[in-house]
User: Fold this.
Amino acid sequence: MNIATKITPAHAAAEVAATPLEELNPARVDRFYNDTIWPVFERLRREDPVHFTPDSEYGPYWSVTKWNDIMAVDTNHEAFSSADGIGLANLEAVAEQEKVMGVRRRGNAGFITMDEPDHGPARKAVSPTLAPTNLQTMAPLVRERAGQILDSLPIGQEFDWVDLVSKELTAMTLATLFDFPFEQRRKLPWWSDMIMNMPGHGPVESWQQKGEAMFECFNAFQELWNQRVNAEPGNDLISMLAHNPATRDMAMETYQGNVVLLIVGGNDTTRNTISGSVVALNRNPDQYDKLRANPDLILPMISETIRWQTPLAHMSRVATRDIEVGGKTIKKADRVVMWYISGNRDEEMVERPNDFIIDRERPRQHMSFGFGIHRCVGNRVAEMQLTIIWEEILKRFPEIKVVGEPVLNWSAFVHGYESLPVVIPYRT
Amino acid sequence: MPTDPAHAEAIELSLEIAGERGGDLTPIVYGRLFERQPQMKALFWRDTSGAIQGEMLMRVFEAILDFVRARRYADHLIQTEVVTHAGYDVPPDVFATFFGLVAEVVEETCGPDWTPAMADAWRRTLADLDHFVTHPEQVAV
Assistant:
């Protein structure tokens, strides 16, 4: 159940234009849910690229909205710490969650919420599994499974693309990366949804249910750890963590944080780009025609979707000292949000940034994976899955037709889709 | 510390001329990288069209331009790229090789328009870049 009502883009733009600048709160979730966020960032990039929101449901925070300023923050991990969390946290939600799960350190989402010198060795423990050379070994299995998913889809009948394709493909890949019991793979996206949503959104009905799901997830991964730590070192992510000297003695809470990072990071980004590509191609039939005519455009189309969709809208940091960004002085301990979703539409960096153009001159020019030491460790896995699924789609289906309005996530962090009704009219 | 404005201009001009004369320098630069560091080729197995290499080279050019001008992020970006690439077993000396051969290809492409001022600016810039490649840890100021 979603509690917000839909409003039109024109109303939203008028409302943004009428709001005093100092009252603009770019993280207001209903704008993401209604897909009316764009005028906010257009105005901020134009009038106040480094913007302070003094009071919000997240507390006070800075918004950095232009490409070069985001780069300056993202690459400077000495001045901008990740240790206190990488997303904006709704303060009321944190309080409610603490009632159920107890007080947990803010952040605590594995190595992405560590600063140097702890971060590097912890990230390095898992990066070989996600490195390009290892993915080459994994690619045939992903292709085989992608084919199985597509061959099982109904033809001529409406179904939810998010459920039957986007979630299923990412669940299969994540299960492979974790060497997680394959028959239970759908628990992975379900846990991700339970972690990332608040009651009333996604599958979350209550804080109690959310807490229980998280404990179920942690228990399952504790069992995996126990199996792997007592076995010969393997090539899966859990075995890598259990046997690497940098991570094998980590605290249970840190391990749980890494599990959250890998499940959510491996799930939401890829799955929302798969869904986003279908949405974007349907809204831009000329681009869909180009793709059908030239399958060599799959890779640039994937990159363009990653930019256009920006599956993670932001990352945040906390300033470790007073520092100037874009002419504004950010004070020590201030929270700073890098809006990748806005940087990806920065008119000074990307030509016609609101348009979806699959044969751009520089299709890979986007900041959706972030920059700096926390740049998405799984970016190549994501690109590989997306490329393979589209190669297999084009072999089978001339068209995937969106037949209703997609329902968007209730989140200012994960920018994606709850559901996407489609019909595949026929097979090739 | 950003470069002397005269050096920055010389670097910009050399890149501009190389861009006009040589068009897309990606195949030449990466061809030489794979000759000198053959183990790097395996990392690009998916890049059958050269698009990944092309984007990386464009980012390198943008970073060099930022590095010699305002230095808004390039120094930190280079440090962090060294750190993240270490995760893929790419050693820091690959960065030194790469920047060096970018300079080499730019010089060759500029041909008769290559000037002593450009040579001097690139020599200094490569030395400055090398500092950040060999000192990837960011130090509190």
